[in-house]
Structures are given as structure tokens and as C-alpha cells.
Amino acid sequence: MRVVALSDTHAPRRWRSCPPRVAGHVRGADLILHAGDVCVPSVIEELAAYAPVHVVKGNNDGPDLDAPETLELTLDGLRIGMIHDSGPAKGRLARMRRRFPRADLVVFGHSHIPLDESDGGLRIFNPGSPTDRRRQPHGTLGLLTIEHGALTRAEIVPVT
């Protein structure tokens, strides 16, 4: 299963339509995970034209975005938790383990800082932002490959 992870698209200020390099990755994806700060629901509608989308609400998302604050799902046997803001970097892995005790992977956003970290039992993954890189060298997204209950590939890919 090929999954694209996104966060912090911040439309329409930063995302007027799906950027071509993002479209190149979501085209052919089996699923898209968006970790919040969509800002306008039309982004989800646009992404859904490429693949099914699971989204959580971010701190900049209003009541017009019909999404939960957190989400737990199983994809091809891999247990995934999603949240927008995972809190401070210090203690993040332990905090996400407490919040999602059954998860193998937690996808989050908010900081716009790409991160792929593991403690052996839990992997946490922030794809960064494809449109608002802040102090990062590039806008980014995440590519995940899931096979038979295992995350076989996790990659943070520059798109700007």
C-alpha cells in the first residue's frame, strides 16, 4: 500500500491548488493522510480526486472542516494514530505512546519540521509542510509503504 502523508497545507494562503510536485506523488497513491491545518475543506475535496483521504483537525482548521482531533486506523495490518499537534519535542515519543497505546506509527504535523523517529516500538512521523517550509530548506511530504502489517518504507521528500 502506497500512502502519501501531508500536513500544514494552509490553504488558500499557501495552497491555491495542488502543487505539481505534490500532485506527482498523490497521483497513484492508495491513500492520503493529512495531519491537519488544511484551513479550507476544498483541499480535502481536491486530494480526494487522487485517492481516499483521512484527515485530522489542526489548530487553524475551522468548524467547516468535518474532521476529528485524533484518528486511529489500521492500514494493511499497520495500526496508525493521527494527531495534528504532538506537543513539545521533549518527551514526544513517550507522550504519543500514551496517547496511542496500540499504534505502530503516529503521523502528526503542526511544527512544519519533518521528523522520522522511532524508539523501536513506536515510530512517529511528521511529513513537514509542502507549502510553508518556514525555516526548513524545502517544503516536504511523506511517502509511506505498508506491506502485510509492516511499514517497509518511510521517506520525507522535498517538493519545493
Low-confidence stretches: none
SSE order, as H and E?
EHEHEEEHEEEEE
Tell me roughly what share of residues is in helical segments. 10-25%
The first-level CATH class is given as Alpha Beta
- Strand order, largest beta sheet: 3-2-1-9-10
Written account of the structure:
The protein is of the alpha/beta class and 160 residues long. The chain is built from 3 helices and 10 strands. It has one domain (2-158): Purple Acid Phosphatase, chain A, domain 2. The protein has helices at 20-26, 42-48, 92-99; strands spanning 2-6, 31-34, 53-55, 70-75, 78-83, 105-107, 115-118, 123-126, 140-147, 150-158. Strands 3-2-1-9-10 form a 5-stranded mixed sheet, with helices on one face. Strand 1 (2-6), helix 1 (20-26) and strand 2 form a beta-alpha-beta unit.
Summarize the structure.
With 160 residues, the chain is α/β, with parallel strands linked by helices. The chain is built from three helices and ten strands, in the order E-H-E-H-E-E-E-H-E-E-E-E-E.
